[in-house]
Write a structure and sequence with these properties.
Growth Hormone, Chain: A, mainly alpha, two-stranded antiparallel sheet, 423 residues, 17 helices
């Protein structure tokens, strides 16, 4: 698969789009880390830090599918760059005003979250037009899942390094400036400027009229809850075991584990239904979260953090394929943005739950929220396995026939990959 990745990256525009999207997503990927550290530096409590991070997550959750639908309708450049600029302005206001007055801090974080551009969904909409063949789209999704874990590995390091060199406020400003540059790189590229979504049937529910997509989003809400709770619990653990450096180490270890797992997962083409494989991967992901509640010393805790992240990228790569198989025609960016939204809402719930859990039951209770959330995600996938049956009875590796999928109650055409560039 290393050769497959190299071939993919040599495809015109592929490396630029991937790198631009990764840089453009840094503000969103590191926001929970940066907000928690900034609030703590301003003298705020764990609960306040969790609530502000939750506001950002909920605002992102609301904004992503709306902006994703706008990108499907009006094209990417008209949505992505203005969103990035407005989001950076919101975080800049938060960095300059701090927690006093508190209503301004809430408003600034709210604006930053609402206007976060849907770069993640946008990239997945572009992949088919950039790489061509369906098997290369599979490879692109795997590379996408692997590469985005670099954000979760490098992002916390960049935040903590900025804090050490300058301040928590400077970290917020620097990360968001990089985000604007990444979004600019994407939207001025030819694929982004030329891309148009497939024709869609007008329906107020958009992508959400697919029961299969709804089932997937329900499961990944709890994956987001697990990740959000780890963010707060890891801060509390680090306060007792070495401070911000240990926190950055733990969060980067989770990203490193996901990176390793994604590379291994992408080393082969998988046969059979991805919906079934996703249940297995989510089960392993949930099992990896449980040992964190042991809260041992820093070295073994770091190793457990790597284990906790090991199945994250494989589960995400598989989920990307499932999203594309269940999204109604012409809603691809919106559908992928709903997956981002699910993470945002779940992470917000996780941070909001973990703060009181840590204050009531200590660090162990905060990490227990993650373990329970992981198994809740697995239960959702098991309970909805009939709904998530492969559209049209096909498999990921088999031939794809354009049919009217049962998941689309409005009768929209359901090709196996519907993210293709349309004139």
């Amino acid at each position: 698969m290393a050769a497959g990745y190299a071939e993919l990256l040599r495809t015109r525009h592929a490396a630029r789009l991937l790198l631009g999207t990764l840089v453009g997503r840094l503000p969103n990927a590191t926001a929970h880390v940066a907000i928690v550290l900034f609030v703590r530096s301003e003298g705020g409590s764990y609960s306040l830090a969790g609530v502000l991070a939750a506001v950002y997550g909920l605002a992102t959750a609301a904004g992503q599918p709306l902006l994703g639908r706008a990108a499907d309708l009006y094209g990417q450049p008209r949505v992505m760059l203005p969103g990035a600029l407005l989001s950076a302005a919101g975080m800049g206001l938060f960095a300059f005003t701090g927690l006093d007055p508190l209503p301004v801090a809430y408003a600034a974080v709210l604006v930053a979250g609402l206007s976060t551009p849907p770069l993640e969904g946008g990239l997945r909409a572009l992949w088919p037009g950039v790489v061509g063949r369906q098997d290369r789209v599979h490879t692109a999704y795997a590379l996408d899942a692997v590469a985005q874990e670099i954000i979760f590995t490098v992002g916390p390091i960049l935040v903590t390094l900025s804090v050490v060199l300058w301040s928590e406020a400077a970290a917020l400003l620097a990360i968001n400036a990089l985000g604007v540059l990444g979004a600019l790189s994407v939207v001025v590229s030819r694929p982004s400027r030329d891309w148009r979504s497939a024709p869609r049937e007008a329906h107020w529910l958009g992508a959400l009229r697919s029961p299969g997509l709804l089932a997937l989003l329900g499961a990944f809400f709890f994956v987001g809850t697990a990740l959000g709770s780890i963010t707060v619990a890891a801060v509390a653990y680090s306060d007792d075991n070495g401070g911000d450096t240990v926190y950055g180490l733990l969060m980067s270890a989770i990203g490193l584990g996901a990176l390793i797992g994604g590379v291994v997962y992408g080393a082969r083409q998988w046969a059979g239904e991805p919906e079934r494989r996703l249940r297995v991967l989510t089960g392993f992901l949930a099992a990896g979260y449980l040992p964190l509640a042991l809260v041992p010393g820093v070295a073994p805790m770091t190793a457990l953090a790597v284990l906790a992240g090991l199945f994250l990228a494989p589960a995400l790569a598989c989920a990307f394929i499932v999203v594309d198989r269940h999204a109604p025609r012409g809603t691809v960016t919106e559908a992928f943005s709903w997956l981002v939204t699910t993470f945002g809402v779940g992470a917000a719930a996780g941070t909001a739950l973990a703060g009181p859990a840590v204050e009531a039951g200590g660090v162990r209770a905060g990490f227990a929220v993650a373990g329970l959330s992981g198994f809740a995600a697995l239960l959702v996938l098991i309970a909805t396995r009939n709904v998530l049956a492969a559209p049209g009875g096909g498999t990921e590796s088999g031939p794809v026939v354009e049919t009217r999928g049962e998941n689309d109650r409005n009768g929209a055409a359901e090709p196996g990959f519907r993210a293709g560039r349309q004139a």
